[in-house]
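Lab meeting, action items carried over

1. Structure of the two-component assembly. Owner: GW. Status: complete.
Input record:
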Amino acid sequence: MEKRVVFRSAWLPFVLVAPQLAITVVFFFWPASQAIWYSFQLQDAFGLRSQFVGLQNFYTLFKDPNYLLSFRTTAVFSVAVAGIGIALSLLLAVMADRVVRGAMAYKTLLIWPYAVAAAVAGVLYAFMFAPSIGIVTFMLRQFGVHWNWVIDGNQAMLLVIMAAVWNQISYNFLFFLAGLQSIPKSLIEAAAIDGAGPGRRFWSIIFPLLSPTAFFLLVVNVVYAFFGTFGIIDAITQGGPAQSTTILVYKVYHDGVKAADLGGSSAQSVILMAIVIALTVVQFRYIERRVQY
Amino acid sequence: MVERRPWLDVLSHGILILGVIVIAFPVYVTFVASTLPLEEIMVAPMPLVPGDRLIENYSQVLFAGTATGSKAPVATMLFNSTVVALCITIGKIVISLISAFAIVYFRFRLRMFFFWMIFITLMLPVEVRIIPTFQVIADLHLLNSYAGLTLPLIASATATFLFRQFFMTIPDELAEAARMDGAGPLRFLWDVVVPLSKTSMAALFVIQFIYGWNQYLWPLLITTDESMYTAVIGIKRMIVGGDAANEWHLVMATAMLALLPPAAVVLVMQKWFVKGLVETEK
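Predicted assembly:
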């Protein structure tokens, strides 16, 4: 799409795009190319000298059981966050779309968790589920559940999943609600006249029409679980116990900042970039398709 | 509604009310804890009705900080958060607006190349390039400064796209009329395009303010000086160890202070928030 009417100037457009390009080059392209460059380098223990080692950092990474474990952790985490988050928000959105009375009030009361920072959400959940003083820990103990995520890796994973779903649910809810409201009422009415009950109408009409929204949210939620949850993990578990919640982005941070392994961390950054680019391509291909139909 | 199904209405309201309660519970617990003395929190179960220490706890964190963790007063952190969030928001809106204007309203060499350069940054979230970006900031001597906190987060392909999409819908007749009346491109930008873009700007403002306020990893890396902490980092720095070592009443008061401003922005500007969220993802 192009404008028919344009202005002419030899220098003005360059001046106008210059600020954004300058920031993009200095803070995006330069660091990204540095990351790629470092990923082929091996530094000595003091960070004084480095030598070109080709793909050795990548080779070491894929031989490292901890790195492979981190892939598995990330997969479990992102599938759970996306799956649970989408299912719960779809349920809430369908209900909010159904009720006539109070629909606006429910919407207002459900959208604000989006404003809570991931790290703050993490602190809130760490407090509620604290092994000795947490209020939810106490309630669980009444039911005979022994809750201590500080030593139990599965419970730690469950806790970060809960916090991440809570933080993301309003986003999913709003998109599902917008999707539901764009479905023509005549379709639903026609189905009702033909004798389809609420359950049948949902599965045969509403759900298929919502599937593009659901797919879009799936991609967004996976990206969120990969990167947006860093604050939650750092605030609650810091990747522990015993690496059970170390997702890929946390490992980049840990190896690069805490362990000061520049080459290994940069190689991980490069792999993550490849994953993000793949996810973005999937998302854009899908958006193109949505525009056509 | 299509038909009357009273039991289904009851079920719908039930599920929604349950959802609202479950979603609000963590913040309610936080609020209650922020009004209690520490001793009452330390004995499980903590009470679920607010205590009488609201003013003491909040004034202590606002002006004095905690005793065991970070000693910086939270008032400073809230000020830093506000500066950072506003700089990121306004910076993003301004540079995206003018670059989108250039890309839409001019034909110039390398136009599509620049467009793709901006586009591709969508694919590089700050989390994947933290260490090299940190080195760039360190080389520029911008650690512990507002410039270092905001500049790397200002470039935004999302905002540029939103403005580009919107400019495409502005009728060509307006630009024609402006040219015929002898208005130059900058005059056209300021007198026609900017006023028309107000809704898009409001929508972007809400989304980017929340984004800026809630930044975590980046400030965590580049602020070592307590006077430069943002509120979100401050909370993290107050948590020093196990359950018993933290001054939870103060941590929770700080958490409330850190989450109230963005939550207020969402609730007050709800219409633009929804619009911004839905449109930035297109």
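2. GW to write a short summary for the group page. Key points so far: Chain B has a mean pLDDT of 86. The CA atoms of residues 54 and 205 of chain B lie 32 Å apart.
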